[in-house]
């Protein structure tokens, strides 16, 4: 299977537009999701060039597998530490952790991540923490102080400030007014 990674796909219309570009080349992806297309056959250099030209004209860009793997490794490490650890140490030096994990300088990782994902690594980490906070609030097992501590925040105020900036509401408001739309997002949608 040949997997292509495509930057700037953010909605169902993007998927439809990218699908059209594949169809113009006589190609039918076995799977086409936000940011990824799976093909059974490998593409020739000419097909890749034509695809790139069509994608670029629509505001999309194919990214090479090496970059995508680096970004995926970084995301997986962040998700592992935030969603699958008991507690996040306040003293985490994310730049050191991620650089050691991916075996690249942090500046390179940060620039690559921002150029491909459209947000900074710091913003991604904050979004993951807020998503974990939403989960913990939703299940109502911990109070806000315990959640702040578990997620490595120095205070409830700091957590609340970032929470409101990301979600548009305070943690208390989310807890009081839980609606189906407030339920957690899939991690790969962040």
From TrEMBL:
Any one GO MF annotation of this record: DNA-binding transcription factor activity
Pfam families in alphabetical order: HTH_18 (PF12833)
Keywords in alphabetical order: DNA-binding, Transcription, Transcription regulation
HTH araC/xylS-type domain sequence ranges: 98-177
PROSITE patterns to which the protein is assigned, alphabetical: HTH_ARAC_FAMILY_1, HTH_ARAC_FAMILY_2
Region (Disordered): 170-190
UniProt feature, compositional bias: Basic and acidic residues: 179-190
Protein name: AraC family transcriptional regulator
Originating species: Chryseotalea sanaruensis
């Amino acid at each position: 299977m040949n997997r292509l990674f495509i930057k700037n796909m953010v909605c169902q219309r993007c998927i439809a537009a990218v699908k059209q570009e594949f169809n113009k080349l006589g190609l039918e992806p076995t799977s086409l999701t936000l940011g990824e297309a799976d093909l059974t056959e490998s593409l020739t250099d000419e097909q890749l060039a034509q695809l790139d030209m069509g994608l670029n004209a629509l505001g999309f860009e194919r990214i090479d597998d090496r970059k995508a793997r680096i970004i995926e490794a970084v995301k997986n490490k962040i998700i592992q530490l935030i969603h699958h650890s008991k507690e996040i140490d306040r003293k985490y030096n994310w730049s050191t952790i991620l650089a050691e994990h991916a075996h690249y300088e942090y500046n390179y990782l940060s620039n690559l991540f921002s150029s491909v994902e459209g947000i900074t690594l710091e913003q991604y980490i904050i979004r993951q923490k807020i998503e974990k906070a939403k989960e913990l609030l939703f299940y109502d097992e911990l109070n806000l102080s315990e959640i702040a501590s578990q997620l490595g925040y120095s205070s409830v105020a700091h957590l609340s400030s970032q929470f409101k900036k990301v979600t548009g509401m305070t943690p208390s408001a989310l807890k009081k007014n839980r609606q189906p739309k407030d339920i957690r997002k899939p991690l790969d949608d962040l």
